From TrEMBL:
This is UvrABC system protein C. Pfam families: GIY-YIG (PF01541), HHH_5 (PF14520), UVR (PF02151), UvrC_RNaseH (PF22920), UvrC_RNaseH_dom (PF08459). GO terms for cellular component: cytoplasm; excinuclease repair complex. One of its GO terms (molecular function) is DNA binding. It comes from the Bacteria. The gene is uvrC. Belongs to the UvrC family. Transmembrane segments: none annotated. The keyword DNA repair applies. Residues 253-471 form the UvrC family homology region profile domain. Its main location: cytoplasm. It is found in: Cytoplasm. The UvrABC repair system catalyzes the recognition and processing of DNA lesions. UvrC both incises the 5' and 3' sides of the lesion. The N-terminal half is responsible for the 3' incision and the C-terminal half is responsible for the 5' incision. One of its GO terms (biological process) is nucleotide-excision repair.
Length: 593
């Protein structure tokens, strides 16, 4: 059905509309109380629209819609679809992968781990946290403090089998794998870790202090010193949690700063009276960016406060409150304080947002100048907003792989990084590899995001020609440049339109291209090592009678490397792959004890 026909039969119900471009890519998702009225507005009075909206409307070639019962349901559906499609013209929060969470796994004898992905798997999550180093440090301290397990053993299958690891012997783990620690006893320790992460660590500090003094009074100085060491570790975590209130209030304090291009939003997360985290988001500034941020943020959040504090009235506050209640079964009130402690916290969030925006502006100015200069020296017609960089990696033709790195809107966008195992042939052939990777990328458009404004290939004219051949065959007109390296494996020049283009006399361009080349190379080498490691593992096991594909896969999933397999006991190998003792013995003989 043509777009004009769809516009003529739109219902007047509430719902969500999905705009698509000529390639069928979703470019915008919106909600409406009345679908017919809202969608038709896009195709009327275009002079009253913002430039970005006018540009989007020109690209709309198709639309879908989904009718809902009410506006709150439309809001929830809109947030889910934005997260799924990540349309170019929507306000987008950074992808979850850019943040770290602390996860308490949903398994017998839970583990404390870091993750970048929140799943509905029954586990408990804390975060997100911006500083990866701080998160890892906190997790290691908590595991050591409460003697939580670090192994990946599967319980109850592996309970009481095999030897406990080194952490048990140096008293950093209870050794639950031995089978003599009850789930109840272990769970109490997990809950103590939860208390610390929830801002209630002071309770545990007081308990430990009382125990330390008790040991000291009884002249048990060694035990007292152990407790003192634990207190020191615990205080490292607690000192990062600033006391805001004397009571146990839980609030999210949200404020922003904006200029003509961007808006920086800061969320101060207060739990049990303590500021336990700060989140920062820098988004493209539009008329309703702050409201759209609140909708998306609370459509998928790990920890809810009792109160959300914002700087001014917004139109959709009722819908946000109802959305939270419908999604989580929990009532949250949104308030706008004019004075007092809460207003001071809003001012603190505002100040942090201003700093974040200023930092972003400095970085953006540098990248904007670099991209503009790059556009000019290559003689491109369009602005460069998105660059895709490709690399092929192999050793003597073995384990041939390709990788894709994306630089978009002044940042490396890891959401769209991709790995390709070369499948079309065996042996070393960079030209065929480039063709295969580019073909797979540009015949699967929805998976890879919007079309780039420039493609960089790690290689010379032959690789560039291979990429252009694929693009021309598939009907794409995208500029392609090759990154020519010097004897130190650093990009010296670019190959474009059959000529070498010098970039060393343009410092900002050189630094940008060098950063992209280094990131592309790092990602390619990392993937190549992963593939080689697995193949090396498999090739050694292939030589052992009694090891087929299923057993080989089980061993790889359990141990992951030859080194780990070498360290394992025969009993652990027998259990991991359900193999006879004699076969496990052959494995140990083959790889060395």
């Amino acid at each position: 059905m043509l777009l004009e026909e769809k516009l003529s039969i739109l219902p007047t119900s509430p719902g969500v509309y999905i705009m698509k471009d000529e390639n069928g890519n979703v470019i915008y998702v919106g909600k409406a109380v009345n679908l017919r009225n809202r969608v038709r507005q896009y195709f009327q009075n275009s002079q009253d629209m913002l430039p970005k909206t006018r540009l989007m409307v020109k690209k709309i070639k198709d639309l879908d819609y989904i009718v809902t019962d009410n506006e709150v349901e439309a809001l929830i559906l809109e947030c889910n679809l934005i997260k799924e499609y990540r349309p170019k013209y929507n306000v987008l929060l950074r992808d979850d992968k850019n943040y770290q969470y602390i996860k308490i796994t949903n398994e017998m004898f839970p583990r404390l781990v870091t993750t970048r992905k929140v799943e509905k798997d029954g586990s408990r999550y804390f975060g997100p946290y911006v500083s990866g180093y701080s998160v890892k440090q906190t997790v290691e301290l908590l595991k050591s403090l409460f003697m939580l397990r670090t192994c990946k053993k599967k319980f109850p299958d592996q309970l009481g089998k095999g030897r406990p690891c080194l952490n048990f012997h140096i008293e950093k783990c209870l050794g639950v794998c031995k089978g003599d620690v009850s789930e109840e006893e272990y769970q109490k320790l997990v809950e103590r870790a939860v208390k610390v992460l929830s801002g209630k660590g002071d309770e545990i500090v007081e308990e430990l202090k009382a125990k330390m003094f008790e040991y000291a009074e009884n002249l048990m100085f060694e035990k007292a010193q152990e407790i003192k060491n634990k207190l020191s570790s615990l205080e490292q975590i607690i000192t990062k949690q600033k006391v805001i209130y004397a009571d146990d209030r839980s609030e999210d304090v949200i404020n922003f700063a904006k200029d003509h291009t961007h808006i920086a939003i800061v969320v101060l997360i207060i739990r049990n009276g303590k500021l336990i985290n700060k989140e920062e988001f820098v988004l493209k500034a539009e008329e309703d960016t702050f409201e759209r941020f609140l909708e998306q943020y609370y459509a998928d959040v790990v920890s809810l406060p009792k109160e959300i504090i914002i700087p001014h009235e917004i139109e959709n506050v009722y819908n946000i409150e109802k959305m939270i209640e419908k999604l989580y079964g929990f009532k949250v009130k949104v308030t706008i304080p004019k004075q007092g402690e809460k207003k001071q916290l809003l001012d603190m969030a505002k100040k942090n947002a201003e700093i974040s925006l200023a930092n972003r502006q400095r970085v953006d100015d540098v990248y904007a100048e670099a991209l503009l200069t790059l556009k000019n020296i290559l003689g491109l017609e369009n602005e460069i907003e998105k660059i895709e960089s490709y690399d092929i990696s192999n050793i003597a033709g073995a384990d041939n792989v390709g990788t894709l790195v994306v630089f978009e809107d002044g940042r490396f966008n890891k959401e769209f990084y991709r790995k390709f195992k070369i499948k079309g042939f065996e042996g070393q052939d960079d030209i065929r590899s480039v063709k295969e990777v580019l073909t797979r990328r540009f015949t699967n458009l929805e998976k890879h995001g919007r079309i780039p404004d420039l493609i960089l290939i790690d290689g010379g004219q032959n690789q560039v020609n291979a990429a252009l051949e694929v693009l021309n065959t598939l009907g794409f007109s995208i500029p392609v440049a090759g990154m020519v390296k010097d004897d130190k494996h650093k990009t010296r020049d670019l190959i474009y339109n059959g000529k070498e283009v010098g970039i060393q006399e343009y410092p900002l361009v050189y630094k940008l291209i060098y950063a992209i080349q280094e990131e592309t190379h790092r990602f390619a080498v990392k993937f190549h090592r992963e593939v080689r490691k697995k193949h090396l593992y498999e090739s050694i096991l292939d030589e052992i009678e009694g090891i087929g594909e299923k057993r080989k896969l089980k061993l790889f999933r359990t141990f992951g490397s030859i080194d780990n397999l070498r360290k394992a006991s025969i009993e652990e190998i027998v259990k991991a792959a359900d193999i006879p003792y004699e076969v496990a013995l052959k494995i140990k003989e083959k790889i060395g004890v």
